[in-house]
Specification:
The complex is a heterodimer of chains A (133) and B (429).
Chain A: H1 4-11, H2 15-23, H3 27-31, E1 36-41, H4 43-47, H5 53-59, H6 61-69, E2 72-74, H7 79-82, E3 87-89, E4 95-100, E5 105-106, E6 109-118, E7 121-126
Parallel strand pairs in A: 1-7
Antiparallel strand pairs in A: 1-2, 3-4, 4-5, 5-6, 6-7
Chain B: H1 18-25, H2 35-66, H3 80-83, H4 107-115, H5 123-128, H6 135-148, H7 155-159, H8 162-175, H9 180-188, H10 190-225, H11 232-246, E1 253-257, E2 260-265, H12 273-288, H13 321-324, H14 330-339, H15 344-351, H16 360-387, H17 396-411
Antiparallel strand pairs in B: 1-2
Classes of the chains: A alpha+beta (133), B mainly alpha (429).
Chain lengths: 133, 429
């Protein structure tokens, strides 16, 4: 089985996310045994942000890392486990609320594809970049 | 972001400000979309941006250079280096250019600093005669942010952390090196200078916030002069895009002592412009601030001042501009600053209304109030965009969530002091 980074690379939907993870020096962490739960925004989610947003973050890796860590939980949780709790603490520190079980929505993002199992965790594909708050 | 009509319409809102809810749901502002409102808000943004260009430079100068000077008599005299400090969002070298103008201090600002109202005199006389930019206003804003704290974000918590205390201690010891009196005081009262450093960290915070806003407002004024804004919603769009573009800008506090840079709040601490500067600023300054001692006085013992800081409502969104506009208090200082840089079309407008030039400070104060309802609308739209759903989301549940958010924001203007109702009409001047 592949790890989270290899899985994301293979899917071909996450080039912005992978670049961001690289710039924020989080690649090694996501290749480590973990396990992690990752809410992975597709490229279109980043493209939907107003112009300049991603560039400013890429220019400032620590700030970018905060936003990315908001998409990661410590521990591997499947959809059925996630919906049992109202909110989960992200690696960034702020809580990620589970908005709806059916359809599966996390904060203001819809889960496009859930439960992609990797060596070191589980990936849920989402349609929007989530921001803390 | 483009203005779109929701695909699935919800039943009409039953909120007392239903009309405003509807406007926000269409991507608009709390301020009605009229040509005069557009003219007023953009004109005052320009008049605000010029002193703001001084405020941010001097705030950073004080936070980074004046630092703990026990007798900071010259803190309002930023060095040439700070007047030339390239704005990160203007000038040819900018990585993310928002304003097409130069990166150094605005020419109108430099001209005013040179001559003021009184003409060419030594700098010190301009200062003592108060014929200058009123930095006291900027400091009152930092005080409001420092005092209210706990408004979301983690900046304040960081000021209590061991990492911060260690960095501040290092800076204090370096600054007072070879000064046994001040070092002795520091030993006796170890919290005293630390608290001053915390206050200065808010100077850096607000300086970095305004460094962004000045070029945003200059650019809006330039676009308006070229006929580039179709209406108030277009101005909202520009602001929302601006907020997003710089949302991730680092907020930090560096201090330069004897050629060495001490990072009291380092950039890698991860603080961002949106969460640690913009949102707390809006909350502290637009909504809360403090009951100013104008011609109107408040009796705290009689419960006229709320017991909870979160309930404070003395910001520009609630201000009765006339009594608040008494001499010497922070909002009047800003009005006085803006008076010097009004575009001619606003001066003409004020001349033709109310008491003409005699009450121009009140009239421009009310224009400022309108413009800040517009900035607050942009912040509300930016938060909706960041935390909720697009305005044209096909899912009615998402639209309901957006509406609940808008209505909750407008609930803050239900109290009688709020001016939201007044700014709906043009004859409130």
């Amino acid at each position: 089985m592949a790890n989270i980074i290899e899985t994301a690379k293979g899917a071909g939907l996450f080039s912005t996310l992978l670049t961001a993870v690289e710039v924020a020096s989080l690649t090694a962490a996501l290749e480590s045994p973990g396990p992690f739960t990752v809410f992975a925004p597709v490229d279109a989610a980043f493209a939907a942000l107003p112009p300049g947003t991603v560039q400013t973050l890429v220019d400032n890796p620590p700030q970018l890392a905060c936003i990315l860590k908001f998409h990661v939980l410590s521990g591997a949780y499947s959809r059925s486990e996630l919906v049992e709790q109202a909110s989960w603490e992200s690696l960034e520190g702020a809580a990620i609320p589970i908005r709806c079980a059916e359809p599966f929505e996390v904060k203001n993002a819809s889960v496009l594809s859930a439960d992609i199992v990797c060596d070191n965790g589980i990936v849920h594909v989402i349609n929007r970049v989530m921001l803390p708050g | 972001m483009t203005v779109t009509t929701p695909a699935t319409a919800l039943p009409p809102s039953t909120h007392p400000f239903a009309e405003v809810v509807e406007r926000l749901e269409a991507g608009g502002s709390m301020l009605p979309d009229t040509p005069e409102n557009l003219m007023q808000i953009i004109g005052i943004y320009k008049a605000y941006a010029v002193p703001m260009d001084f405020y941010w430079r001097d705030l950073l100068y004080i936070a980074e250079r004046v630092f703990l000077d026990p007798l900071p008599a010259f803190k309002y005299f930023p060095s040439q280096e700070y007047l030339d400090l390239p704005n990160s969002y203007a000038g040819d070298a900018s990585k993310l250019r928002i304003w097409r103008g130069p990166a150094t201090a605005h020419p109108e600002l430099l001209a005013f600093m040179d001559k003021g109202e009184a003409g060419k005199l030594p700098k010190l006389l301009h200062h003592l005669w108060h014929d200058r930019i009123n930095m006291e206003f900027a400091e009152a804003c930092t005080d409001a942010m420092f005092w209210h704290q706990g408004m979301g974000g983690r900046f304040y918590d960081y000021l209590e952390s061991d990492a911060y205390k260690a960095n501040a201690e290092r800076a204090i010891l370096a600054y007072f090196k070879g000064n046994p009196l001040m070092l002795g005081l520091h030993k006796l009262f170890p919290e005293m200078f630390l608290e001053q450093v915390r206050k200065l960290s808010y100077y850096a915070n607000l300086g970095l916030f305004w460094e962004v806003m000045a070029p945003v407002f200059f650019e809006m004024s330039d676009i308006y002069d070229e006929g580039g804004f179709s209406g108030v919603p277009a101005a909202i769009d520009f602001l929302v895009n601006g907020i997003f573009a710089v949302a991730g800008r680092p907020i930090y506090h560096h201090v330069y002592i004897g050629g060495e840079c001490i990072e009291i709040i380092p950039k890698p601490a991860g603080f961002t412009w949106l969460y640690e500067a913009a949102l707390p600023y809006v909350e502290a300054v637009f909504y809360r601030t403090a009951p100013f001692r104008g011609t109107k006085s408040y009796n705290a013992q009689a419960g006229q001042v709320p017991s909870q800081q979160a309930d404070f409502h003395y910001g520009i969104l609630y201000a009765d501009v006339f009594p608040v506009g008494s001499a010497g208090i922070p909002p009047t200082l800003l009005m006085q600053d803006m008076l010097h840089f009004l575009p001619p079309y606003l001066v003409d407008l004020y001349r033709n209304h109310k008491r003409g030039e005699d009450d121009i400070l009140v009239q421009l104060g009310i224009t400022f109030q309108r413009s800040m309802y517009n900035v607050t609308s942009a912040v509300i739209q930016a938060l909706r965009c960041a935390l909720l759903f697009p305005l044209d989301d096909p899912d009615p549940e998402h639209l309901k969530a957006n509406r609940a958010f808008f209505e909750a924001q407008l609930d803050r203007f239900l109290r009688p002091e709020a001016r939201l109702r007044d700014v709906q009409t043009q004859d409130y001047r």
